[in-house]
Amino acid sequence: xxxxxxxxxxxxxxxxxxxxxxxxxxxxxxxxxxxxxxxxxxxxxxxxxxxxxxxxxxxxxxxxxxxxxxxxxxxxxxxxxxxxxxxxxxxxxxxxxxxxxxxxxxxxxxxxxxxxxxxxxxxxxxxxxxxxxxxxxxxxxxxxxxxxxxxxxxxxxxxxxxxxxxxxxxxxxxxxxxxxxxxxxxxxxxxxxxxxxxxxxxxxxxxxxxxxxxxxxxxxxxxxxxxxxxxxxxxxxxxxxxxxxxxxxxxxxxxxxxxxxxxxxxxx
Length: 268
Prior knowledge:
With 268 residues, this protein is mostly beta strands. The protein has one helix and 19 strands.
């Protein structure tokens, strides 16, 4: 795991609307990390070095030693009710939107759990964008506990990956063994499935064409800040996009084998 110089500032959070647990001093962005949280323990630690924590309205997030997936420690997030939000913010990354890496993490909950995987600007809670909802039904680290999250190339530069408990579940949520790693066999999938596929014209007006649609399961279109503005299930080779406003978009082809390929396109 890559570790950098870090200045921690612990602040009392009881009785206030929200708080941030730490201030990064000199945490340079990294291109990978592997964190099992075992060098940190409750009650003194709340996030690892170069990570951050945001809690609002009495939510909680700590390092816990309650039957982790490996070793001695893990992340624990809880809180139920309006505005009781906790967000664990991961280290800055050089390749967050490169399309070459994914996040792998093991999760469990002590009840019906719900978290959200997404990205955030610095430690500003209102900037969190959900990339994928996470429903957790397993109450132990079993064969179903490992989750893999892909990150689209539409995520803006300078964002940080984060996991949020929005306060909609009574459960306590645990997660461990978080790894930002290169997607295995990415080059092979690219060559075999998506090589030669084009999305055209570019710039476009009301229609987009895809040269080979047979292996495409779904198409999503994101705007310049990463929001999904159009989703097409079982797409045809011609895609109507007359509802989109002028601007820059990212068109992502989701293939039947689970891989993706994105194209930048401009509507004039």
